[in-house]
Design brief:
The protein has two domains: 47 residues, no CATH class; 62 residues, Roll (CPE0013-like fold). Helices cover 17% and strands 35% of the residues. Bound molecules: iron/sulfur cluster.
Amino acid sequence: MVREFTCIMCPLGCDLRAEIIPGANEEEILVTGNTCKKGKEYAMQELTDPQRNIATSVLVEGGELPLASVRLTHAIPKNRIFDVMGEIRKQKLTAPVKAGQVVIENVLGLKSNVIVTKSVGRG
Ligand code: SF4
């Protein structure tokens, strides 16, 4: 199996090619196209345990803006994105909201917090 990715670990954006080569005892993953070892690590992670961050927004009551932008402090397994989005959608904050404020601690036990990224003052 061959998978192709664009490395997102730095702005260079190397085109990576990862090939799973079946072996007698275990599979070997051959990564090419990477300029540095971070690219290989990224491709291996994408193949074995893809992780993603979320950037979205949460409703704010009584604020100068109706929404506050939020993100996760750590990437989570890609297959949990929809579950976490569901938890974020349930949230409603009350102004004022401060950047860095924790909205959900350890969301769904995934060792990542949902935090505010932009302050919203009272309206
Ligand atoms: S492989 Fe290295 S140089 Fe290329 S995009 Fe990834 S981190 Fe940057």
